[in-house]
Each structure stands twice: as structure tokens, then as C-alpha cells.
Model the fold of this input.
Amino acid sequence: MKNIPIRLFSLLVVLLPVLAFAEAPTLDLAWQTEKVFQQPESVVYDSQRDLLFVSNVNGEPDKVDGNGYISQLSVDGKLIEQHWLTGLDAPKGLALVGDTLYVADIAQLVAIDIKHKKIIKRYPVSDAKFLNDVAADASGNIYVSDMLTDTIYRLANGKFEVWLHDAALEFPNGLLVEGNSLIVASWGKMTNGFATDIAGHLKTIDIASKKIQSLGNKTPVGNLDGLESDGKGNYLVTDWMIGKLFHIMPSGDSTTLLDLEPGSADLTVLTKQKLVIIPIMMSNDIVAYHIK
Done:
């Protein structure tokens, strides 16, 4: 009997880290914009200027039409400038490195000088079909997913080229660099248009070896799009097709945090402000939630 408290204590020592990982946050609506955007696909936070950049597809997502543009939005949901930068086609994923904003735009990566508000470089790829998300590592290398070709490109030392092509990526969408790993939100293998028989899940890629592994137990989650860390070792991930926000643990287990509108796309998380900000592509607005 005297050993029972000791055993209980030992059990708690083992379980506490697991419980910390498993605890899903609660979210309360902070703000919602008017429906002034035109198919907003991605939001990224510029901490230097304390504002948000928003990509607007404004047309068919694979059409070279020159209608796409970037907007600026305040962190409390007020529109700063609708057409901050134009001259794009169907801009999607965004990433910041210093004063350069990188944008995935169908078959090219576009580099924008934020200070001078102008495009400074375009990196076209002849074999790309649907460049989607963009992520930067600590060295400033840029990773870009091509969802329709199971390919991830990388911009390094001025060269934009195939970094990894593998069917195991299962239509890669959202990207997130974490230390020596690239986390990938897979859409799932498409069977009819963008529909899937088996939904996607998170995958991890060792950047040095390019080895692909499923995160945790490979449990199908959804048609995954936006991907961000929750700052506690877990992930906040959107489902574009049915409109959900998931909390996914390293085990691969997931919890639905929010039921949203279809088109819930490439979110951003502001850890200091405890905000998650989600563009809703099909309803042309952006929503933000307080993280508790």
C-alpha cells in the first residue's frame, strides 16, 4: 500500500508531457473582415511593420491573367490597402525573408521588395503546374510546394529548382520548416478533380536526407491546406474542401477546433498576440480567433 503514492507519482511524471501535447486550445472569434477580398488564399504576418499581407487569386487558380494582387491588412482586421501590389496571376502561398516577400504564382516564384513595393525577381519553372505554399528556413532558403506534381522546389543561392519529387508526398500543400525538418500538409491522392478517396495527413521530411515519413499514426485527417505550429509542439491545420481548423498532435491524432466555410486556406499564427488568422477563399473574407 505504501508504494501506491509512488506509483501514482511515477505515472503522472510519464503522463504530464503527453497531456501537455494533447491539450487542444479553445478559440474565440476576435474579428472578421468585410467580404472585400477576391479569393484570399494566404496570410502572412510582417512583424517588422506589424501588419499582414494577403494574397488574392481573383480568378481561376491556374489561369495566367494578371488579375492577382496582394493586400495589406492590420492585425486587428482593418484594411490598409486593397491593391498594395498588382501584376500577379493567381498568387497563393506567402513567405517573408527580411524585406522580401515571396509569392507562389502558378508556375513561378515571385520576389517582392517590400520597402519599394515592386517585383524584383521572377523565378519561372517550366514543369510546374500549381505552385501553392511557400516556407523559408533559417538560412533564407525558400521551399515551394507544387500540389499537382508531387514536387517541392527550393530557392537556394539564387537557383530555383526541384528539391524533391516523390509520389509519397501525396499532393503536398502547406509547408512549415521546423529545425531540420520540413513539415508537409498533404491534400491526399486526388481521384476526381480535387476529391480524394483517402484524406491527407501531415508528413515530415528530413531536410538533409530528404527522407519522407508520416507524422505519427498516418491517420487520414482532411484535404489539408494551411499549416502552422501552435507553439507547443502541435499543429494548426486547415481543411480547404469542407472548411475546418484542426489541432494535430505529433501522434497524428487530430481534434476539430473550428467548423468554418469551404475554402479555409493558408493561415498564420501570431504567438505573441495569441491570434490565429485564416483567409476564407470562397467567401472572400478573413477571420481571426483568440487562442486560449
